[in-house]
Every structure is written in structure tokens, then in C-alpha cells.
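Try this one yourself first.
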């Protein structure tokens, strides 16, 4: 394998002699990929024109004898919005290709890579994918990626407390560890799929893509329900841009951020450091988050680019636990350091052949500290919280004292270390007009909790169109995993235009979409260590026929229609989806192991129980999305998701609270036929953006219905008297936020961000109160950049 990687690197780096002319060329197309002839193309060098031309009948253009420097394109064509491309470096030799995709409608859709592995306009894919671009991130003026994700249809955010508290993402019902999280090509998940969004600042983030649906074809394991792809800003201005922002607010909040970005000849750079501190509204609810980002690119020649991106964040957070359950905060804290590093080499080897090689590294360090027991120590050595009354949205309530800290030796310190190292190769070949084949390979080395794994992923995919009306993406992924061995998954996505986009008609476009995919997920190291196979001796494994656990699996499909309205100024999308998650790893006691067919002797040998592939869930639902450009700088969007979910296979025995006789309760997991916890059946969001002259503003909202949950508490006698019925336990809530910015001068602006402006006292997770009304206000100073030239 090392030889093959070295060979490809040599091909990538040595392809600089393929072209011999000093030329800038490209093709102008519409969002569907059809060529645009007679478009006016201007090549700009800084603020001055370096030449102009028009496209021919094939949509092609070319500028010859271009001197070395940084250039960008402007393209104008009748019936299309003007296109201004990014600034790129043109070398002294070779050919630089700058393609332009013109926008027909006023409602932009953008370009995605998560659906196909290469940059493709959303208009040309059938996948359910959303893009949060840099302008929206800036307009919302939030500090965390999790807040931006609230605007994605079908994505539900659950934070167990206030800022810094563990935060999970559920996509169309999929569990918190069913999503593949990619940061600049680096897998950011913990081993087994978990990811805490509370630790990820959106400082320096260029865009966020969310692909709803399994896509293990491209991403290997863990993409059971969706993919989140995060990319970092890079420098573009020939004049360096230095930006410093500082703001403060209630709860002792202070935020600082400084960045420097620019481009010099072949080299571009962007670096940022930020620090956020707050105390929260409860004792031991502090949060400190420091982040550093560095993005450095070098254009080796007109066809080859090298890029290194480094991101690291350090967090320190107090964890008061479910304070509504105990009446007093716990004293526990958690420290984290996460590091992501990628090195990428891309090359346009020929006009039809593109190659990429990437080396990636991710490392996760955390320490959980419980310094001492909090509360009243009882006869068993456990500590109890205060006497509290816990009320659910379903009308049930209980009063009592719950065990806050169990007996043990304090301080309790739990360090966790995990690391991933990977090599990724991808090759794209345009083999027939509008059709491209993509092949890829990834080797990944995982290290965590005393386990090491070497995994191998392969994939092949083809995407293209027929008549710029029917668009197809289809492929297969193949995984050789160190735990469960071989697995294969398919993926197919289709889009068909009943009516092609047009800016001249009220019903400006009609697009049909369909997707089908299967996904797989590997076990965490904890599940690997506690699977039945690991708890048996080699002799017992052979005697009882026990093998290692298999992958957790998903089968998902969706179908939808997208309708353009008001001459392309509005868009309405309707989607129906069905997701099935099965072979899920579940911890079963010896009796439950026997009930699912495990040899009784093997079940007894596990002592207390073990993980096996045993449970399943299914979801179906519908999404409605609407976006419109109202004119005069106003843009509005809204979405609504209905989610019908149920546990279809589980082995947890119901618990009963004597106060509610006859009502079975899932103490730690939902019961058979019940809704999975913390996945509300109804959710939605809205946003109203305004940007004109010197002022920008955003009003956003996130709305959630009641959901099933559990108290999962033990009383002083280890009994069930503090359990509440699960159905509709957690109340509904609304989080409404408002932000604004005013540019006083090109080099200084003032801004404010107000979250939860209704000061609603809500619980995203039952027993864990969210932050009430919070406000920040500050200044941004900018020195240099394109505005400085003016």
C-alpha cells in the first residue's frame, strides 16, 4: 500500500508538464450543467481588467499570454445573475482552468461535496442536503456550530444544560452517534461515532453541509443517518486582512477573536485564535473554550495545489448535572483537547482526470473529574440531593431525594484518549461528456482505550446526467473492519426535472428527488471490550460458536419534490422519508442473552451480561421547507419536520413506580413500541435575514414539541419512586434569537447577539435547564483586505 500511495503522490506532484501554454480557460454552465454561449467573461487582476471575451457554442472561453499573478472571473449573461469567482493564482507556465456556474434564480442553492465526493451544484444532485454558508453564519452571529445546525430541516439539537454541556445531533430520528462528522476531510467522531457539538466553535468556519441519509459509500463507517461536512476559511485578499472582535455580556461572558488572512503569489493563509468564557446561570456551570485554526495553501503549479489545515480546541466545563432533579449542582468538571490535522494534495492531471490524496490526524483527550461527593451522605455512602418535586409535561409528578453521587473513592478521575490516523486517495475521471466515475480508498488506524484497529474502506461511484434533466448518482462502498470484518453498502440518488429552472415563469422549476442507501457503524471501544466474544475464553468462543459483533446497520430512503415559485424568488420543498436502524448493539443481561438464542453456558460465562447486535428502531416522517427572497435585502426561510418513530426490538424489562401502578416505564431505555428518547415528533425553525447598506440583522427561531424522555433516577433505597412515565415527559419549547451588525466605517463595526429573547425556561433534555435570556455586544476592527484598498 505504501508503494501505491507514493506512486500516486509522484503522479500528482509531477503532472505539472501536462500543459505547456500560459492560459486561463474554462466553461460557463447553468445550474443544471448546460453550457451558456455568448456569455461575457472578464478576467480581473485585482481591481483592473486583464481582458474580456465571450463564450463559444460549447460554453468555453480562453485567455492566452496571461502573466503570473492572482486573478478572478466576472461572468455576465442574459437571464442570469452576475457571477464573480474566487481569486486564484495563475503561474508563469501551464493552463489554469476556471469554470463558472451561473445562477438563474434569486434563491441560491450553492455547491456541495458531501453528496458525491467532488464539488457539484445542489441543483444536480438528488440527495437531501443543506448548506449553511459563510454569510448566514456571520448574520446569525452565534458562537457554536450547534446553533447554526438548528436551521437544518430534520436536524434536532439536544443540549444537556447550558453552554458547554454535552450536545447531540439527531438526524431524522437517527441516534446521536449515527452521524459522520468531517472537519476539512478529517473524521472528527470518537471511535464508534459519538461527537459532542458543544466543543466546536464556528470561528473560521466557511460552510457547513448536512447530508440527511446514510452515505457509507463515501465515508466508510458511522454514516448511518447523516453526514456533517465542515470547511474552514482560507485567505483570498492580496492585501493581508487582520480582524479583531471583542464582546461581552451577562453571566460573566467575554469573547475575543483575532484572525489574519490573505494571499501572496502561490501562497494563501488564514489563521485564527479565539477565546470564550462564561459562568452560566447556575453554580459550577462555567464554560471556557479556546480555539486555534490554521489553513495554509500553496499552488505548486497551475494544476496542483497543496494544503495543510490545523484546528485545535481546548475546553473546560463545569457539569452541574440535572440540577432540576437534585436541587443542588454537582461539583464535577471536564477538560477536553481535540486536534484535527489534514494535509491534502490535489491535481488536475489531465482535463478529464482529477486526483486527490489526503493524510489526516485526529486526537481526542478528555479528563472527567469528580472531586468530592455533593449533598447529604446516607448510610450506604451515597450522597443525596435535596428534596425536590419533579414535574413532567405529561402531568405526572414525584417528590423525593435522588442519589447524586454514588459511594466510592474521591476524587474520581477518568481520563480518555483516542486517536485516528488515515490516508485517503480519490480519483475522478470524466469518461463520457456529462458522466464522471469516482474511485477511492482509505486506510484508517484507530487507537483508544487500549485497543488499536486497522480499517480499510473502498468505494466506486458514478454520477452524471441525461439531457440535463435526469441526474443520477450511484455507487457502492466496501469496508474491511478490524472488529466485524467485511461489509458492503449501496447508494443511489436520482433527480428529475419535470420543469427546468427558468426566471421567466411563476412556476420556475419542478424537481423530483429519490434516494436509497444503506449504512454501517462500527462499535465503540467500550462496546468492543464488553461484547460477548471478548468476555469468553478462546475455548468458550469455539465451543459455543460465538463470533465478534457485527456492524450496526441502517436502510434509509426518501422521496421529494422541489417547486420553484415567483420567477425563481421562492422555493418550496416537500420530502417523505423512512429510516430503519437495525442490528444495534445492546447490553443484555444473561437471561436476555438466552432469550435471543445465546447458549445458556455462554451467557452465564459473561457474568453480568454483554453487548450483542439485538435491537432496532424505525422512523418515518415528512419535511416541508420554504425559502424566499422578498427584495430590499430581506430573505426568509422556514422548515417543519414530522417524525414518527418506534422501537421495534428491545429487551429491556419495564420498571414500575408504585405511585403509578400499571404504567410500564423505561428507566434507562425506551420500551418496545415506544418512541425513542429525546426525539420530538414535531420540530421546526425559521429565519428572517436583512442585509442592506451598512446594516445586517437576523431573527431566528427553533421550535420543538413535547418528547419522550426518562428521569433515570434512583431513590435512597435504589428504588423506582422517582421514575416518571416516559410518554411526552419533556415539555415543548421555543428558542428565539435576534442579532444585528452596523458598519460604522469599513474598518469598524458594532454588533449584538441576543439569545432566547423570550427568556423561556425550557429543558432540551429533561431535568437539564437551558440558558435564559443571554446578550452579547461588541466591536469588530478590520485592517487591510479588499475594503482597505478602496
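Now uncover the answer:
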Amino acid at each position: 500500500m505504501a508503494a501505491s500511495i507514493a506512486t500516486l503522490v509522484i503522479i500528482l506532484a509531477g503532472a505539472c508538464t501536462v500543459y505547456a501554454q500560459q492560459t486561463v480557460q474554462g466553461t460557463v454552465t447553468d445550474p443544471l450543467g448546460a453550457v451558456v454561449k455568448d456569455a461575457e467573461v472578464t478576467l480581473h487582476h485585482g481591481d483592473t481588467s486583464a481582458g474580456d471575451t465571450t463564450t463559444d457554442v460549447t460554453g468555453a472561453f480562453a485567455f492566452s499570454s496571461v502573466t503570473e499573478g492572482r486573478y478572478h472571473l466576472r461572468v455576465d449573461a442574459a437571464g442570469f445573475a452576475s457571477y464573480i469567482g474566487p481569486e486564484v493564482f495563475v503561474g508563469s507556465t501551464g493552463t489554469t482552468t476556471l469554470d463558472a456556474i451561473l445562477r438563474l434564480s434569486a434563491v441560491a442553492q450553492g455547491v456541495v461535496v458531501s453528496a458525491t465526493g467532488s464539488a457539484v451544484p445542489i441543483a444536480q444532485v438528488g440527495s437531501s442536503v443543506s448548506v449553511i454558508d459563510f454569510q448566514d453564519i456571520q448574520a446569525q452571529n452565534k458562537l457554536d456550530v450547534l446553533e447554526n445546525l438548528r436551521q437544518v430541516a430534520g436536524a434536532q439539537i439536544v443540549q444537556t444544560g447550558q453552554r458547554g454541556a454535552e450536545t447531540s445531533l439527531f438526524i431524522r430520528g437517527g441516534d446521536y452517534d449515527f452521524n459522520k462528522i468531517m472537519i476539512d476531510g478529517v473524521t472528527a467522531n470518537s471511535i464508534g461515532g459519538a461527537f459532542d457539538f458543544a466543543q466546536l466553535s464556528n470561528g473560521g468556519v466557511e460552510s457547513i453541509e448536512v447530508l440527511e441519509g446514510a452515505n457509507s459509500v463515501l465515508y466508510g463507517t458511522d454514516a448511518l443517518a447523516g453526514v456533517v461536512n465542515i470547511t474552514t476559511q482560507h485567505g483570498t485578499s492580496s492585501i493581508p486582512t487582520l480582524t479583531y472582535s471583542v464582546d461581552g455580556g451577562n453571566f460573566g461572558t467575554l469573547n475575543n477573536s483575532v484572525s489574519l488572512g490573505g494571499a501572496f503569489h502561490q501562497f494563501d493563509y488564514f489563521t485564527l485564535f479565539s477565546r470564550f468564557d462564561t459562568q452560566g446561570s447556575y453554580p459550577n456551570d462555567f464554560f471556557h473554550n479556546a480555539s486555534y485554526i490554521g489553513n495554509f495553501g500553496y499552488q505548486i503549479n497551475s494544476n496542483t495545489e497543496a494544503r495543510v489545515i490545523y484546528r485545535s480546541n481546548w475546553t473546560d466545563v463545569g457539569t452541574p448535572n440535572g440540577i432540576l432533579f437534585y436541587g443542588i449542582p454537582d461539583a464535577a468538571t471536564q477538560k477536553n483537547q481535540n486536534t484535527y490535522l489534514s494535509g491534502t494534495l490535489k491535481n488536475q492531471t489531465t482535463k478529464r482526470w482529477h486526483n486527490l490524496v489526503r493524510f489526516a490526524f485526529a486526537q481526542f483527550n478528555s479528563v472527567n473529574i469528580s472531586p468530592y461527593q455533593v449533598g447529604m451522605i446516607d448510610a450506604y455512602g451515597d450522597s443525596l440531593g435535596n428534596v425536590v418535586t419533579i414535574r413532567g409535561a405529561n402531568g405526572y409528578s414525584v417528590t423525593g431525594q435522588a442519589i447524586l453521587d454514588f459511594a466510592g473513592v474521591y476524587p474520581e478521575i477518568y481520563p480518555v484518549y483516542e486517536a485516528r490516523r488515515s490516508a485517503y486517495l480519490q480519483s475522478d475521471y470524466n469518461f463520457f461528456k456529462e458522466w464522471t466515475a469516482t474511485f477511492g480508498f482509505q486506510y484508517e488506524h484507530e487507537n483508544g482505550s487500549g485497543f488499536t484497529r486497522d480499517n480499510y474502506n473502498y468505494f466506486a461511484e458514478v454520477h452524471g446526467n441525461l439531457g440535463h434533466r435526469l441526474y443520477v448518482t450511484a455507487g457502492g462502498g466496501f469496508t474491511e473492519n478490524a472488529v466485524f470484518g467485511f461489509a458492503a453498502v449501496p447508494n443511489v440518488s436520482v433527480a428529475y426535472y419535470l420543469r427546468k429552472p427558468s426566471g421567466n415563469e411563476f412556476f420556475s422549476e419542478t424537481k423530483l428527488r429519490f434516494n436509497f442507501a444503506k449504512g454501517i457503524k462500527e462499535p465503540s471501544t467500550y462496546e468492543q471490550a464488553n461484547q460477548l466474544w471478548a468476555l469468553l475464553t478462546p475455548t468458550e468462543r469455539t465451543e459455543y460458536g460465538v463470533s465478534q459483533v457485527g456492524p450496526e446497520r441502517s436502510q434509509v430512503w426518501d422521496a421529494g419534490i422541489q417547486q420553484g415559485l415567483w420567477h425563481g424568488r421562492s422555493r418550496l420543498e416537500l420530502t417523505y422519508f423512512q429510516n430503519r436502524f437495525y442490528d444495534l448493539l445492546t447490553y443484555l443481561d444473561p437471561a436476555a442473552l438466552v432469550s435471543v438464542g445465546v447458549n445458556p453456558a455462554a451467557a452465564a460465562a459473561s457474568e453480568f451480561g454483554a453487548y450483542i447486535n439485538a435491537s432496532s428502531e424505525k422512523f418515518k416522517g415528512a419535511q416541508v421547507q420554504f425559502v424566499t427572497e422578498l427584495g430590499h435585502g430581506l430573505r426568509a426561510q422556514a422548515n417543519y419536520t414530522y417524525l414518527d418513530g418506534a422501537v421495534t426490538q428491545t429487551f429491556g424489562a419495564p420498571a414500575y413506580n408504585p405511585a403509578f401502578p400499571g404504567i410500564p416505564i423505561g428507566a434507562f431505555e425506551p420500551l418496545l413500541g415506544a418512541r425513542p428518547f429525546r426525539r420530538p415528533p414535531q420540530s421546526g425553525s425559521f429565519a428572517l435575514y436583512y442585509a442592506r447598506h451598512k446594516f445586517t440583522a437576523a431573527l431566528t427561531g427553533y421550535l420543538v414539541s413535547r418528547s419522550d424522555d426518562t428521569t433515570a433516577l434512583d431513590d435512597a433505597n435504589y428504588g423506582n419512586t422517582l421514575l416518571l412515565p416516559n410518554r411526552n415527559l419533556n415539555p415543548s419549547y421555543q428558542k428565539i434569537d435576534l442579532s444585528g451588525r452596523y458598519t460604522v466605517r469599513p474598518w469598524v463595526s458594532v454588533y449584538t447577539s441576543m439569545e432566547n429573547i423570550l427568556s423561556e425556561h425550557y429543558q432540551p433534555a429533561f431535568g437539564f435547564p437551558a440558558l435564559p435570556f443571554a446578550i452579547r455586544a461588541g466591536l469588530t476592527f478590520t485592517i487591510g483586505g479588499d475594503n482597505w484598498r478602496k
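Discussion: The chain has eleven helices and 45 strands. Residues 1-20 have pLDDT under 50 and may be disordered.
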